[in-house]
Amino acid sequence: MVEEVSIDDAVDKVTYSIIQAADMAIPKTSGKIPKIWKPWWNEECRIFNKQQKKARDKFRRYPSTSNLIDFNWPKQILEELNGRVRGNHGKHSLAP
Predict the structure, then answer these.
(1) What is the pLDDT at residue 95?
(2) Dihedral angle sign, alpha carbons of residues 33, 34, 40, 44
(3) pLDDT tens per residue across span 10-29
């Protein structure tokens, strides 16, 4: 004879079985996003980045032409420095 089981119990059992199978088959991640490391970043880059952030905050609070120039100057230097440092990273010459 067929045993009468409520439809809710049957759905719960099937759902539980699917979730258990997925837990065993699908790998889990830690949820942490890895920090992207920049091997070419050095102390000089850090100093100009800090200056640029300070100038940006000052310009945002007190917008003026002189503060805009102060904001753009370390930004341009940092971009040039980053390009130069990135370009030279990993290029070690054995020639004198």
Answers:
(1) 47
(2) positive
(3) 899 999 999 999 989 988 87
| Average confidence score pLDDT of the chain | 80
For residues 48 and 57, what is the distance between their CA atoms, to the nearest angstrom? 14
Distance CA 50, CA 34 (A): 23
Amino acid sitting at position 34: P
The token pair at 52 is 């640029």
Q: Are 58 and 67 in contact (CB under 8 A)?
A: yes
Residue 93: how many CB atoms within 10 A of its CB?
5
Half-sphere exposure of 2 (CA within 13 A, CB side): 3
User: What pLDDT, in 10s, does the model give residues 76-94?
Assistant: 777 777 777 766 655 554 4
Residue identified by tokens 């440092």 is 85
Question: 81 with 38: CB under 8 angstroms?
Answer: no
